[in-house]
Write a structure and sequence with these properties.
Chain lengths: ~50, ~425
Protein backbone atom coordinates (compact mmCIF):
# COMPACT_ATOMS: atom_id res chain seq x y z
CA UNK A 1 0.00 0.00 0.00
CA UNK A 2 2.78 2.39 1.08
CA UNK A 3 4.74 1.55 -2.07
CA UNK A 4 1.67 2.17 -4.22
CA UNK A 5 0.97 5.51 -2.63
CA UNK A 6 4.55 6.69 -3.14
CA UNK A 7 4.39 5.65 -6.75
CA UNK A 8 1.12 7.54 -7.17
CA UNK A 9 2.51 10.60 -5.41
CA UNK A 10 5.55 10.62 -7.66
CA UNK A 11 3.39 10.18 -10.72
CA UNK A 12 1.03 12.98 -9.67
CA UNK A 13 3.96 15.29 -9.05
CA UNK A 14 5.40 14.48 -12.46
CA UNK A 15 2.08 14.92 -14.24
CA UNK A 16 0.85 18.10 -12.70
CA UNK A 17 3.42 20.11 -10.81
CA UNK A 18 4.06 23.51 -12.29
CA UNK A 19 7.78 23.41 -11.76
CA UNK A 20 10.15 26.22 -12.46
CA UNK A 21 12.01 24.34 -15.20
CA UNK A 22 8.75 23.68 -17.01
CA UNK A 23 7.78 27.35 -16.77
CA UNK A 24 11.12 28.42 -18.22
CA UNK A 25 10.51 26.12 -21.20
CA UNK A 26 7.04 27.61 -21.54
CA UNK A 27 8.54 31.11 -21.69
CA UNK A 28 11.18 30.04 -24.25
CA UNK A 29 8.60 28.36 -26.53
CA UNK A 30 6.27 31.37 -26.25
CA UNK A 31 9.12 33.77 -27.06
CA UNK A 32 10.07 31.74 -30.16
CA UNK A 33 6.43 31.74 -31.32
CA UNK A 34 6.17 35.52 -30.86
CA UNK A 35 9.44 36.17 -32.69
CA UNK A 36 8.35 33.95 -35.61
CA UNK A 37 5.01 35.75 -35.73
CA UNK A 38 6.53 39.25 -35.60
CA UNK A 39 9.16 38.32 -38.19
CA UNK A 40 6.40 37.24 -40.55
CA UNK A 41 7.63 33.63 -40.73
CA UNK A 42 4.32 32.44 -39.27
CA UNK A 43 1.48 34.21 -41.06
CA UNK A 44 -2.32 34.01 -41.02
CA UNK A 45 -2.10 31.46 -43.85
CA UNK A 46 0.26 29.10 -42.03
CA UNK A 47 -2.43 27.52 -39.87
CA UNK A 48 -5.00 26.81 -42.63
CA UNK A 49 -2.19 25.34 -44.77
CA UNK A 50 -1.75 22.58 -42.18
CA UNK A 51 -5.17 21.10 -42.98
CA UNK A 52 -7.00 19.70 -45.98
CA UNK B 1 25.72 10.40 -17.81
CA UNK B 2 25.24 12.12 -21.18
CA UNK B 3 23.73 8.91 -22.58
CA UNK B 4 21.35 8.72 -19.63
CA UNK B 5 20.28 12.29 -20.19
CA UNK B 6 19.78 11.59 -23.89
CA UNK B 7 17.69 8.54 -23.07
CA UNK B 8 15.76 10.67 -20.59
CA UNK B 9 14.75 13.09 -23.30
CA UNK B 10 14.20 10.42 -25.94
CA UNK B 11 11.60 8.66 -23.81
CA UNK B 12 9.25 11.65 -24.21
CA UNK B 13 9.34 11.64 -28.00
CA UNK B 14 6.86 8.78 -28.81
CA UNK B 15 4.17 10.17 -26.46
CA UNK B 16 4.67 13.73 -27.67
CA UNK B 17 4.40 12.57 -31.27
CA UNK B 18 1.23 10.65 -30.41
CA UNK B 19 -0.27 13.79 -28.85
CA UNK B 20 0.76 15.86 -31.87
CA UNK B 21 -0.88 13.39 -34.26
CA UNK B 22 -4.06 13.20 -32.19
CA UNK B 23 -4.05 16.98 -31.88
CA UNK B 24 -3.71 17.39 -35.64
CA UNK B 25 -6.54 14.91 -36.31
CA UNK B 26 -8.82 16.72 -33.86
CA UNK B 27 -7.97 20.12 -35.38
CA UNK B 28 -8.63 18.71 -38.85
CA UNK B 29 -12.04 17.57 -37.57
CA UNK B 30 -12.61 21.01 -36.03
CA UNK B 31 -11.70 22.84 -39.24
CA UNK B 32 -13.98 20.53 -41.23
CA UNK B 33 -17.07 20.95 -39.03
CA UNK B 34 -16.60 24.72 -38.80
CA UNK B 35 -16.19 24.85 -42.58
CA UNK B 36 -19.30 22.73 -43.09
CA UNK B 37 -21.27 24.96 -40.74
CA UNK B 38 -20.23 28.03 -42.76
CA UNK B 39 -21.16 26.18 -45.97
CA UNK B 40 -24.57 25.36 -44.47
CA UNK B 41 -25.21 28.98 -43.53
CA UNK B 42 -24.17 30.12 -47.00
CA UNK B 43 -26.39 27.47 -48.63
CA UNK B 44 -29.36 28.63 -46.55
CA UNK B 45 -28.68 32.25 -47.51
CA UNK B 46 -28.47 31.36 -51.21
CA UNK B 47 -31.67 29.30 -51.14
CA UNK B 48 -33.51 32.12 -49.38
CA UNK B 49 -32.23 34.74 -51.84
CA UNK B 50 -33.13 32.51 -54.77
CA UNK B 51 -36.61 31.95 -53.41
CA UNK B 52 -37.07 35.73 -53.16
CA UNK B 53 -35.51 36.47 -56.53
CA UNK B 54 -36.98 33.46 -58.36
CA UNK B 55 -34.05 33.39 -60.87
CA UNK B 56 -30.76 32.14 -59.37
CA UNK B 57 -27.49 33.96 -60.03
CA UNK B 58 -24.96 32.20 -62.27
CA UNK B 59 -21.77 31.21 -60.39
CA UNK B 60 -19.62 33.86 -62.08
CA UNK B 61 -21.92 36.56 -60.77
CA UNK B 62 -22.20 34.95 -57.32
CA UNK B 63 -18.44 34.83 -56.82
CA UNK B 64 -18.15 38.57 -57.52
CA UNK B 65 -18.77 39.25 -53.83
CA UNK B 66 -15.32 37.79 -53.18
CA UNK B 67 -13.76 40.31 -55.53
CA UNK B 68 -15.81 43.10 -53.96
CA UNK B 69 -14.40 42.10 -50.58
CA UNK B 70 -10.83 42.35 -51.91
CA UNK B 71 -11.56 45.87 -53.17
CA UNK B 72 -13.06 46.90 -49.83
CA UNK B 73 -10.09 45.41 -47.97
CA UNK B 74 -7.74 47.50 -50.11
CA UNK B 75 -9.74 50.63 -49.17
CA UNK B 76 -9.66 49.59 -45.51
CA UNK B 77 -5.87 49.13 -45.62
CA UNK B 78 -5.54 52.64 -47.05
CA UNK B 79 -7.71 53.92 -44.16
CA UNK B 80 -10.42 55.07 -46.57
CA UNK B 81 -12.90 52.60 -45.08
CA UNK B 82 -13.15 52.82 -41.30
CA UNK B 83 -14.71 49.43 -40.59
CA UNK B 84 -12.97 46.25 -41.62
CA UNK B 85 -15.19 44.46 -44.17
CA UNK B 86 -16.39 40.97 -43.26
CA UNK B 87 -14.88 38.21 -45.36
CA UNK B 88 -17.68 36.49 -47.29
CA UNK B 89 -17.86 32.71 -47.37
CA UNK B 90 -18.02 31.54 -50.98
CA UNK B 91 -19.10 28.06 -51.99
CA UNK B 92 -17.10 26.00 -54.46
CA UNK B 93 -18.42 26.06 -58.03
CA UNK B 94 -19.64 22.45 -58.08
CA UNK B 95 -21.37 22.82 -54.69
CA UNK B 96 -23.04 26.07 -55.75
CA UNK B 97 -24.29 24.70 -59.03
CA UNK B 98 -25.54 21.48 -57.47
CA UNK B 99 -27.35 23.51 -54.80
CA UNK B 100 -29.03 25.73 -57.39
CA UNK B 101 -30.04 22.71 -59.46
CA UNK B 102 -31.31 20.42 -56.69
CA UNK B 103 -32.16 22.97 -53.92
CA UNK B 104 -30.82 20.38 -51.50
CA UNK B 105 -28.18 21.09 -48.89
CA UNK B 106 -25.48 18.36 -48.71
CA UNK B 107 -25.77 16.12 -45.63
CA UNK B 108 -22.24 16.77 -44.36
CA UNK B 109 -23.00 20.48 -43.90
CA UNK B 110 -25.98 19.66 -41.68
CA UNK B 111 -23.85 17.08 -39.88
CA UNK B 112 -21.13 19.66 -39.17
CA UNK B 113 -23.70 22.04 -37.80
CA UNK B 114 -25.17 19.31 -35.55
CA UNK B 115 -21.72 18.44 -34.20
CA UNK B 116 -21.18 22.08 -33.26
CA UNK B 117 -24.61 22.22 -31.62
CA UNK B 118 -23.43 19.33 -29.42
CA UNK B 119 -20.19 21.24 -28.80
CA UNK B 120 -18.16 18.37 -30.25
CA UNK B 121 -15.22 20.59 -31.15
CA UNK B 122 -11.55 19.57 -31.04
CA UNK B 123 -11.59 20.06 -27.26
CA UNK B 124 -14.33 17.47 -26.71
CA UNK B 125 -12.87 15.07 -29.26
CA UNK B 126 -9.45 15.12 -27.62
CA UNK B 127 -10.70 14.86 -24.05
CA UNK B 128 -13.38 12.23 -24.65
CA UNK B 129 -11.33 10.37 -27.24
CA UNK B 130 -8.19 10.40 -25.09
CA UNK B 131 -10.10 9.20 -22.04
CA UNK B 132 -11.76 6.47 -24.09
CA UNK B 133 -8.44 5.25 -25.52
CA UNK B 134 -6.74 5.28 -22.11
CA UNK B 135 -9.51 3.33 -20.39
CA UNK B 136 -10.33 0.80 -23.11
CA UNK B 137 -7.40 -0.27 -25.27
CA UNK B 138 -4.94 1.61 -23.04
CA UNK B 139 -1.69 3.22 -24.14
CA UNK B 140 1.62 1.38 -24.41
CA UNK B 141 4.23 2.20 -21.77
CA UNK B 142 6.48 3.72 -24.43
CA UNK B 143 3.97 6.55 -24.96
CA UNK B 144 3.24 7.34 -21.30
CA UNK B 145 6.11 9.72 -20.40
CA UNK B 146 5.48 11.84 -23.50
CA UNK B 147 1.73 12.09 -22.95
CA UNK B 148 2.43 13.34 -19.42
CA UNK B 149 4.90 15.84 -20.84
CA UNK B 150 2.32 17.09 -23.36
CA UNK B 151 0.00 18.54 -20.70
CA UNK B 152 2.03 21.69 -19.91
CA UNK B 153 2.14 22.52 -23.65
CA UNK B 154 -1.17 24.25 -22.89
CA UNK B 155 0.78 26.94 -21.06
CA UNK B 156 2.48 28.64 -24.06
CA UNK B 157 -1.07 28.98 -25.41
CA UNK B 158 -2.08 30.79 -22.21
CA UNK B 159 0.96 33.08 -22.52
CA UNK B 160 0.21 33.86 -26.20
CA UNK B 161 -3.40 34.64 -25.34
CA UNK B 162 -1.96 37.59 -23.38
CA UNK B 163 -1.54 39.33 -26.77
CA UNK B 164 -5.31 39.61 -26.95
CA UNK B 165 -5.65 41.86 -23.89
CA UNK B 166 -4.66 45.38 -22.96
CA UNK B 167 -4.17 46.37 -19.33
CA UNK B 168 -7.59 48.02 -19.12
CA UNK B 169 -9.22 44.66 -20.05
CA UNK B 170 -7.19 42.96 -17.40
CA UNK B 171 -8.12 45.50 -14.74
CA UNK B 172 -11.80 45.48 -15.73
CA UNK B 173 -12.15 41.73 -15.23
CA UNK B 174 -9.20 41.42 -12.87
CA UNK B 175 -10.80 43.41 -10.06
CA UNK B 176 -13.96 41.25 -9.80
CA UNK B 177 -11.71 38.22 -10.44
CA UNK B 178 -9.57 39.21 -7.49
CA UNK B 179 -12.65 39.51 -5.28
CA UNK B 180 -13.93 36.12 -6.46
CA UNK B 181 -10.54 34.55 -5.84
CA UNK B 182 -10.25 36.00 -2.36
CA UNK B 183 -13.81 35.16 -1.33
CA UNK B 184 -14.21 31.70 -2.85
CA UNK B 185 -10.72 30.37 -2.83
CA UNK B 186 -9.78 31.51 0.66
CA UNK B 187 -13.33 30.70 1.78
CA UNK B 188 -12.77 27.12 0.62
CA UNK B 189 -9.33 26.92 2.22
CA UNK B 190 -10.80 28.06 5.54
CA UNK B 191 -13.89 25.83 5.15
CA UNK B 192 -11.79 22.71 4.53
CA UNK B 193 -9.59 23.55 7.50
CA UNK B 194 -12.56 24.05 9.82
CA UNK B 195 -14.62 21.03 8.67
CA UNK B 196 -11.53 18.85 8.71
CA UNK B 197 -10.63 19.88 12.24
CA UNK B 198 -14.20 19.13 13.34
CA UNK B 199 -13.92 15.70 11.68
CA UNK B 200 -10.64 15.26 13.57
CA UNK B 201 -8.56 14.85 10.44
CA UNK B 202 -4.81 15.04 10.25
CA UNK B 203 -3.22 18.46 9.53
CA UNK B 204 -1.13 16.94 6.75
CA UNK B 205 -4.25 15.82 4.92
CA UNK B 206 -6.17 19.06 5.55
CA UNK B 207 -3.27 21.22 4.39
CA UNK B 208 -2.95 19.56 0.97
CA UNK B 209 -6.71 19.29 0.64
CA UNK B 210 -7.31 22.96 1.50
CA UNK B 211 -4.64 24.14 -0.91
CA UNK B 212 -5.71 21.74 -3.64
CA UNK B 213 -9.46 22.31 -3.46
CA UNK B 214 -9.12 26.02 -2.76
CA UNK B 215 -6.49 27.25 -5.16
CA UNK B 216 -5.00 25.42 -8.02
CA UNK B 217 -5.49 21.71 -7.87
CA UNK B 218 -2.49 19.51 -7.71
CA UNK B 219 0.13 22.27 -8.19
CA UNK B 220 -0.96 23.90 -4.94
CA UNK B 221 -1.22 20.53 -3.18
CA UNK B 222 2.35 19.76 -4.27
CA UNK B 223 3.53 23.17 -3.02
CA UNK B 224 1.89 22.73 0.38
CA UNK B 225 2.55 18.99 0.96
CA UNK B 226 6.14 19.31 2.25
CA UNK B 227 5.24 22.29 4.45
CA UNK B 228 2.40 20.56 6.30
CA UNK B 229 4.45 17.32 6.25
CA UNK B 230 1.62 15.37 4.66
CA UNK B 231 1.96 11.60 4.49
CA UNK B 232 2.01 9.97 1.04
CA UNK B 233 -1.42 8.49 1.79
CA UNK B 234 -2.87 11.97 2.54
CA UNK B 235 -1.34 13.39 -0.59
CA UNK B 236 -2.71 10.53 -2.63
CA UNK B 237 -6.23 10.92 -1.26
CA UNK B 238 -6.15 14.66 -1.91
CA UNK B 239 -4.84 14.28 -5.46
CA UNK B 240 -7.41 11.57 -6.24
CA UNK B 241 -10.25 13.77 -5.00
CA UNK B 242 -9.00 16.84 -6.90
CA UNK B 243 -8.63 14.79 -10.08
CA UNK B 244 -12.07 13.27 -9.75
CA UNK B 245 -13.79 16.62 -9.13
CA UNK B 246 -11.87 18.25 -11.98
CA UNK B 247 -12.78 15.48 -14.40
CA UNK B 248 -16.46 15.53 -13.43
CA UNK B 249 -16.47 19.34 -13.75
CA UNK B 250 -14.67 19.33 -17.07
CA UNK B 251 -17.25 17.09 -18.73
CA UNK B 252 -20.39 18.42 -17.04
CA UNK B 253 -19.87 22.17 -16.52
CA UNK B 254 -20.10 23.14 -20.22
CA UNK B 255 -23.49 21.42 -20.42
CA UNK B 256 -24.65 22.82 -17.06
CA UNK B 257 -23.58 26.27 -18.26
CA UNK B 258 -25.65 25.88 -21.44
CA UNK B 259 -28.62 24.56 -19.46
CA UNK B 260 -28.45 27.55 -17.10
CA UNK B 261 -28.18 29.92 -20.08
CA UNK B 262 -24.79 31.28 -19.02
CA UNK B 263 -23.15 33.67 -21.46
CA UNK B 264 -19.55 32.90 -22.43
CA UNK B 265 -17.98 35.51 -20.09
CA UNK B 266 -20.14 34.34 -17.15
CA UNK B 267 -19.23 30.72 -17.84
CA UNK B 268 -15.55 31.70 -18.03
CA UNK B 269 -15.82 33.37 -14.62
CA UNK B 270 -17.58 30.32 -13.21
CA UNK B 271 -15.08 27.71 -14.37
CA UNK B 272 -12.21 30.05 -13.50
CA UNK B 273 -13.41 30.02 -9.91
CA UNK B 274 -14.69 26.49 -9.54
CA UNK B 275 -12.55 24.09 -11.60
CA UNK B 276 -9.40 23.33 -9.72
CA UNK B 277 -6.75 22.73 -12.31
CA UNK B 278 -5.39 25.03 -15.02
CA UNK B 279 -5.48 22.44 -17.82
CA UNK B 280 -9.01 21.34 -16.95
CA UNK B 281 -10.43 24.84 -16.65
CA UNK B 282 -8.76 25.99 -19.87
CA UNK B 283 -10.23 22.92 -21.58
CA UNK B 284 -13.74 23.54 -20.19
CA UNK B 285 -13.64 27.23 -21.13
CA UNK B 286 -12.30 26.51 -24.65
CA UNK B 287 -15.06 23.96 -25.03
CA UNK B 288 -17.62 26.70 -24.30
CA UNK B 289 -16.17 29.40 -26.54
CA UNK B 290 -13.39 31.92 -27.09
CA UNK B 291 -14.94 34.67 -24.92
CA UNK B 292 -15.30 32.16 -22.08
CA UNK B 293 -11.61 31.39 -22.45
CA UNK B 294 -10.64 35.09 -22.37
CA UNK B 295 -12.43 35.58 -19.03
CA UNK B 296 -11.42 32.24 -17.49
CA UNK B 297 -7.79 32.93 -18.36
CA UNK B 298 -7.71 36.18 -16.36
CA UNK B 299 -9.30 34.51 -13.33
CA UNK B 300 -6.88 31.61 -13.62
CA UNK B 301 -3.89 33.97 -13.78
CA UNK B 302 -5.09 35.75 -10.64
CA UNK B 303 -5.73 32.40 -8.97
CA UNK B 304 -2.42 30.70 -9.67
CA UNK B 305 -0.71 33.93 -8.61
CA UNK B 306 -2.22 33.22 -5.20
CA UNK B 307 -0.38 29.90 -4.73
CA UNK B 308 2.47 31.48 -2.70
CA UNK B 309 -0.04 33.36 -0.54
CA UNK B 310 -1.95 30.16 0.23
CA UNK B 311 1.33 28.45 1.09
CA UNK B 312 2.07 31.29 3.54
CA UNK B 313 -1.45 30.93 5.00
CA UNK B 314 -0.99 27.16 5.41
CA UNK B 315 2.33 27.66 7.20
CA UNK B 316 0.67 30.13 9.53
CA UNK B 317 -2.48 28.04 10.09
CA UNK B 318 -0.89 24.61 10.49
CA UNK B 319 2.53 25.42 11.90
CA UNK B 320 3.03 28.90 13.36
CA UNK B 321 -0.25 29.14 15.30
CA UNK B 322 -0.44 25.41 16.07
CA UNK B 323 0.88 24.81 19.59
CA UNK B 324 1.61 21.13 18.89
CA UNK B 325 3.38 21.60 15.56
CA UNK B 326 7.10 21.32 15.06
CA UNK B 327 8.46 24.78 14.21
CA UNK B 328 5.60 26.71 15.90
CA UNK B 329 6.20 30.38 16.54
CA UNK B 330 8.85 30.57 13.83
CA UNK B 331 8.98 33.63 11.56
CA UNK B 332 7.76 33.11 7.99
CA UNK B 333 10.10 34.27 5.24
CA UNK B 334 7.23 35.41 3.01
CA UNK B 335 9.40 36.94 0.30
CA UNK B 336 11.40 33.74 -0.15
CA UNK B 337 8.16 31.70 -0.38
CA UNK B 338 6.76 34.08 -3.00
CA UNK B 339 10.00 33.82 -5.03
CA UNK B 340 10.09 30.02 -4.73
CA UNK B 341 6.45 29.27 -5.44
CA UNK B 342 5.47 31.98 -7.93
CA UNK B 343 4.45 30.42 -11.27
CA UNK B 344 6.89 32.07 -13.71
CA UNK B 345 4.81 31.60 -16.87
CA UNK B 346 2.46 34.34 -15.62
CA UNK B 347 5.27 36.83 -16.29
CA UNK B 348 5.19 35.80 -19.96
CA UNK B 349 1.45 36.48 -20.03
CA UNK B 350 1.95 39.95 -18.53
CA UNK B 351 4.77 40.64 -21.01
CA UNK B 352 2.38 39.82 -23.88
CA UNK B 353 -0.29 42.17 -22.45
CA UNK B 354 2.31 44.93 -22.15
CA UNK B 355 3.58 44.43 -25.73
CA UNK B 356 -0.01 44.62 -26.97
CA UNK B 357 -0.60 47.76 -24.89
CA UNK B 358 2.34 49.40 -26.72
CA UNK B 359 0.83 48.44 -30.08
CA UNK B 360 3.48 45.88 -31.01
CA UNK B 361 0.83 43.42 -32.23
CA UNK B 362 -1.43 44.04 -35.22
CA UNK B 363 -4.86 42.42 -35.50
CA UNK B 364 -3.29 39.70 -37.62
CA UNK B 365 -0.70 38.98 -34.90
CA UNK B 366 -3.46 38.75 -32.32
CA UNK B 367 -5.33 36.32 -34.53
CA UNK B 368 -2.21 34.21 -35.17
CA UNK B 369 -1.21 34.06 -31.49
CA UNK B 370 -4.61 34.05 -29.77
CA UNK B 371 -6.56 31.82 -32.13
CA UNK B 372 -4.29 29.81 -34.40
CA UNK B 373 -1.10 29.03 -32.46
CA UNK B 374 -3.15 28.80 -29.28
CA UNK B 375 -5.24 26.04 -30.84
CA UNK B 376 -2.13 24.08 -31.79
CA UNK B 377 -0.66 24.29 -28.28
CA UNK B 378 -4.02 23.53 -26.68
CA UNK B 379 -4.68 20.57 -28.99
CA UNK B 380 -1.37 18.89 -28.07
CA UNK B 381 -1.97 19.63 -24.38
CA UNK B 382 -5.58 18.44 -24.39
CA UNK B 383 -4.49 15.18 -26.04
CA UNK B 384 -2.17 14.75 -23.06
CA UNK B 385 -4.98 15.62 -20.63
CA UNK B 386 -7.39 13.11 -22.21
CA UNK B 387 -4.83 10.30 -22.40
CA UNK B 388 -4.00 10.79 -18.73
CA UNK B 389 -7.53 10.50 -17.37
CA UNK B 390 -7.23 6.99 -15.96
CA UNK B 391 -10.21 5.66 -14.03
CA UNK B 392 -7.79 3.70 -11.84
CA UNK B 393 -6.25 6.97 -10.62
CA UNK B 394 -9.65 8.51 -9.99
CA UNK B 395 -10.68 5.50 -7.89
CA UNK B 396 -7.84 6.33 -5.53
CA UNK B 397 -9.86 9.23 -4.11
CA UNK B 398 -11.03 7.97 -0.79
CA UNK B 399 -12.05 8.20 2.81
CA UNK B 400 -13.06 11.31 4.67
CA UNK B 401 -10.70 13.35 2.47
CA UNK B 402 -13.01 12.64 -0.43
CA UNK B 403 -16.08 13.71 1.57
CA UNK B 404 -14.46 16.95 2.75
CA UNK B 405 -12.89 17.81 -0.60
CA UNK B 406 -15.89 16.99 -2.74
CA UNK B 407 -18.27 18.82 -0.40
CA UNK B 408 -16.10 21.96 -0.31
CA UNK B 409 -15.47 21.96 -4.08
CA UNK B 410 -19.15 21.39 -4.89
CA UNK B 411 -20.28 24.10 -2.50
CA UNK B 412 -17.78 26.50 -4.07
CA UNK B 413 -19.04 25.60 -7.56
CA UNK B 414 -22.71 26.14 -6.62
CA UNK B 415 -22.13 29.42 -4.76
CA UNK B 416 -19.81 30.82 -7.42
CA UNK B 417 -22.35 29.94 -10.15
CA UNK B 418 -24.98 31.95 -8.29
CA UNK B 419 -22.64 34.91 -7.71
CA UNK B 420 -21.28 35.13 -11.28
CA UNK B 421 -24.79 34.86 -12.74
CA UNK B 422 -26.00 37.64 -10.45
CA UNK B 423 -23.04 39.84 -11.37
CA UNK B 424 -23.82 39.27 -15.05
CA UNK B 425 -22.11 39.28 -18.42
CA UNK B 426 -20.96 42.92 -18.49
CA UNK B 427 -18.81 42.52 -15.40
CA UNK B 428 -16.88 39.62 -16.92
CA UNK B 429 -16.82 40.57 -20.59
CA UNK B 430 -13.23 41.24 -21.60
CA UNK B 431 -13.95 43.14 -24.84
Amino acid sequence: MEEGTREFEEKAKKVFSAERKEDIWVLIISAIAVILGLAGIITKNTYPSLFF
Amino acid sequence: MATMEKEGLLKYIPGLLLCMILGWLALQWDESIHGWQKDLQECQKILKADADRKTPLPFDEYKLKGEKYQEQMALYRQNILKEEPKKPHILKKDVYESLIATKEIPFKYKFGNKMLEFQLTYVAILLLGGMLIRNTIGIADVFKPGTVMARPIIKPGIVLLGGYYVWSNLLKVGVPALLLVVIFIFGTVVLVSIIGRKMKQDDGLLGVMAAGVGVCGVSAAVAVAPIVKSKPRDFFYAVGTILLFGTVGLFTFPYIGKALGMSEPVFGAWVGTSILNTAQLVAAASWYGHDALLTANIINIVRVGFIPIVVIYCIWFYIVRNPTAEGRGEKINSLQIIIDKFPLFILGFFAMVTLNEFGVFTKDHQYIFGKQLLKIFFAIGFAGVGLNIAFDDLRKAGGKAFVIGFFAASLKAILSAIVVMLLGTDVFRVK
